[in-house]
Design a protein that fits this description.
Blueprint: H1 3-22, E1 31-33, E2 40-41, E3 48-49, E4 58-60, E5 66-72, E6 78-82, E7 87-88, H2 92-100, E8 105-114, E9 120-122, E10 126-130, E11 138-144, E12 155-160, E13 166-171, E14 179-185, E15 192-198, E16 203-208, E17 211-216, E18 229-231, E19 237-249, E20 257-270, E21 275-278, E22 287-294, E23 300-307, E24 321-328, E25 333-334, E26 338-341, E27 349-355, E28 361-367, E29 380-385, E30 391-393, E31 402-407, E32 413-418, E33 427-435, E34 438-439, E35 443-444, H3 452-455, E36 459-466, H4 474-480, E37 486-487, E38 489-490
Parallel strand pairs: 1-9, 3-10, 17-37, 21-38
Antiparallel strand pairs: 2-4, 4-7, 5-6, 5-8, 8-9, 8-10, 11-12, 11-36, 12-13, 14-15, 15-16, 16-17, 18-19, 19-20, 20-21, 22-23, 23-24, 24-25, 24-26, 27-28, 28-29, 29-30, 31-32, 32-33, 33-34, 33-35
Amino acid sequence: MSTRKGIFRLLEIILSGYLLSACGSGNHDVIKEIGRDPEIEPDYSGVTVPANIAPLNFIIKETGTSFRINVISSAGDRYFVRSSGNKVRFPVHLWHKLLKNSANGNIKIEIARETEKGTLEKYSPLIIRVAEDPVDPYLCYRLLYPGFETYLKIKIIQRSLTDFCERSVIENQLISNNCVNCHSFNKNDPAKFLVHIRGSAGGTYFIDGEKISRSELKTAELNYGAVYPSWHPGGRYVAFSSNNIRQSFHAAPDEDIEVTDLASSLVIYDTERNELSPIVEKDTVKYMETFPEWSPDGKYLYYCRALQYKDGAEFSTIKYDLLRKAFNEDGKTFGPAELVFDARSIGKSVSFPKISPDGRYLVFTLHNSGNFSIWHKEADLYLLDIQTGNIEKMPVNSNETESYHSWSSNGKWLVFSSKRGDGLTARPYFAYFGSPGTIGKPFVLPQKDPELYERMILTFNKPEFVSGKIRKGPRDFEKAAKNEAVQAHWTGDKDIQ
């Protein structure tokens, strides 16, 4: 047996001995059945998890002098763990052994508390379902303070989903405290993505393997610059929206910030030729177009569209529908706009369309108005079956904001931002997607210290699955920021307003 395996095995024996040695004390001849689930935080009871997820450490929100935990895999393996106070932490090696032996089955967690009289009281067991489908090994997100825009401290973090390791990809303090904005991956590829940065080191940074290039995508014809990106699956083109964004503050006590477009349009960028072109809307009606999203086969570009805002109008009147255009890659041409979902007809607005890797399903956020749902408490996730046109509200929603979301590489997992914890800070939640009828109960990103979310005031923004480790780090972007941005060339005979 190797030294490492021997240490892991010794650890398992020690953990098992914690409970076994304690069972000799107190009056444990009779164990009282409490008849209900224990309250734990985070709530992992009844969730469905991938077979490679990090340990679901939690806090027991019950009273007791001590707690004993009995964990049983589907294969019959049994481990006894004694908590540290109210905290339950699983060794990574032991947890992954439980997952492996419970694939397509369940992990059962039995919790008992010891009273002051020395008796044991047992709760109903917690069941965690383990899917055979793995999740991408990494998650990438922007970490920043919630509230109105501030450049005080912004990082893009890559977090391992199989354990608790994390590292910074970008830290804005190394690039003159510039605002680190949107990041976007080409098909979850850690070696091909882009990042927007605003300020003195501003530009769009393209990562292609070992190369980082800095481009300036704002031209004289493009009044507001290229903002929200989406990679064409072929890897050559990126669709952007060009947005004139206004931030305002509500007077109502139950509402905070409103972020609104005053004008927006779509453009396409050719990474090989360094060319920007307008995606022209032939309709004579003036529209605002934003949040482009390519279909996985690259044949359609989906996006959100609203009637052009008129000065003096209430922002609450802005409603975005879901549309798409056919795309001919050989000629880089687009077909006419096709209405996919008329949200305005029901008094609602659409944002963040995201299509499953198989091209069958599209998840979007539906809210009352505008296109920036992160500040809308009523924002919920909806599922569109592209083949049948059926739309239904997903069972993953809460009474707080559900916002940005993305699919795993295999289409079996959805990650989305939710403020269900405190109504202010967004956390990444995961949900299993087998079919529209088999969607798992969401669970929050596991942390080594299960109390982290209670004391952490930073928000997790724009979570994206990544299929491997990002090799570039903060110093690479610090170096790239010192290079002059390469100006993109405008093609087309129309200015973009």
